[in-house]
Design brief:
single chain, 218 residues, alpha+beta, TATA-Binding Protein, 2 domains, five-stranded antiparallel β-sheet, four-stranded antiparallel β-sheet, 23% strand, globular
């Protein structure tokens, strides 16, 4: 079956906005108990005479955050880290509550402020998954394994990906038939608001969706 191909939306110039947001996040991170927050986030903290180095797992890869200058880099690679992903990592560290994963799933609409932002969330995060994988759901499983994903038990096919150590996401597809179009959803652990805001969750899921599309396109 011929599959529909989607390209990521054109990126506007958000450089100034990200620079300001990163500056504010860096200031907040400098004011927290970093040892406690690393423990809450499931991150590793290494101490030296002049620096603190945080090792953080994000989408199946290890990143290094160096304090006090707040430099974010991908371990073992010269690949640049995108500003919005740097911001996600800092926000996760700042907000991490340490709440243990419950295994209870919720939808975006059940998040604080989630219902009002759901149309935007659907367009940015769920629609790309449905349009690119809905007709061939097995491709989602094959692709998600490259981000450390594994099969779950929802819908016609679902996969769970650990975005961060304390933030599992479950991507769900219903394949549809001659009468019903394919559909999708993204489920979260009930503790997710203790780690990321609704806005950050949208950015995270948008990032994951388009990374999966890119991987599947070869």
């Amino acid at each position: 079956m011929k599959r529909r191909s989607l390209a990521p939306p054109k990126q506007r110039n958000y450089q100034y906005g990200y620079e300001l947001a990163l500056k504010l996040a860096s200031q907040k991170l400098a004011g927290v108990n970093i040892e406690e927050q690393c423990q809450n986030a499931g991150a590793e903290l290494k101490l030296s005479a002049r620096k603190k180095i945080i090792i953080l797992e994000y989408l199946n890869r290890s990143y290094q955050i160096t304090l006090p200058e707040i430099d974010v880099s991908l371990l073992g690679s010269q690949e640049p880290v995108q500003p919005r992903e740097k911001l996600l990592m800092l926000h996760y560290l700042i907000r991490a509550s340490g709440s243990p994963i419950t295994g209870t799933k919720i939808t975006y609409k059940e998040l604080p402020d989630g219902a009002g932002y759901f149309p935007t969330f659907y367009k940015r995060a769920i629609k790309p998954l449905v349009d690119n994988f809905g007709q061939e759901a097995h491709r989602l499983l094959d692709t998600a394994t490259k981000l450390g994903g594994h099969r779950a038990d929802y819908g016609d096919l679902s996969v769970t990906i650990s975005a961060f150590n304390r933030v599992p996401l479950t991507l769900v597809l219903w394949c549809g038939d001659d009468e019903l179009a394919p559909e999708g959803s993204i489920l979260f652990d009930s503790t997710i608001s203790g780690y990321l805001s609704a806005e950050d969750i949208t950015v995270l899921c948008d990032t994951i969706a388009w990374r999966l599309v890119k991987i599947s396109s070869g």
